[in-house]
Amino acid sequence: MTTHLPAPDFDRHADTGVEWPTWLLCLAIYGGWLGALYWYGQDASAGALVLIVVMGAWYMSLQHELVHGHPTRHALLNRALGLMPIAVWYPFDIYRSSHLAHHRDEVLTYPGQDPESNYLEPQDFASRSAPMRFVLQAQRTAVGRFAITPAFAVFHLLRPLLSAAYWHSARVRWTWLQHATLLGLMLWAIQRYAGISPWLYLSLSYACLGLAFMRSFYEHRPAAEPQHRIVINEAGWLWRLLFLNNNYHAVHHAQPKLAWYRIPALYQAHRDYFLERNGGYLLRGYGRFFTRYAVRPLDTPGQQTRHLDADYRHLA
Question: How much is the pTM?
């Protein structure tokens, strides 16, 4: 994809020393999560449960940074920082492999090739039963994205575990054994010291997934040009902090190794370049967008993503 505007000097925005903001972020997230557990253990407050959900979603944003090589150049150390199953479902190594495969921009949104695609082939969608089409269509609403999509995500994550062939890989066996062990120990400790039952914590983790999935509700669209598939969302500061500036998604895809706290300055300095590069695929915040599509589908999940150059300017 070519643009008429000069590309930024990405190296000028890169870190060369210790990434103190990300280290402080690790402390804030782990500390906030432990603090929420302690709060609940003291008075069983509903506010503590809400905070646990928010910290879990924030932790998933941190895991995204760890996958992309932050805060250190040592992959094993970054991995260790993201192994704790605070958000329960996704083993870090499984998420890492899937997400890095998603960064093949040439197949973004393609069903079966982009592991984070929200779309199906039109004939595949049409072949589903009427109730299933209704549920799939409901996921194209903000309410459905929060309430239904986590169930589909967990189902697709766990379904391969029923196949004997899936367990042939020693690496896969070790990944799930490690994850299950850490999860079991964590749930035991949470019940022992905070009084939160495993079933309640699993329910909270479902809401955590729902909140985290709101970011990716419409961060990619069908379009002929790969770069036109990647959104810029000029969100408010609370959303930006929760999602660690991944709302500037076209910037992240252009330079995946750029640290989260460097993204806003790069975007503001080169806003016209990024909007020209992504075909003007711009949303002006999450709140208005979620309200507009709370119960109204923003599009259909059955899309010819390999050929469609969709005109979604009316959604901005």
Answer: 0.92
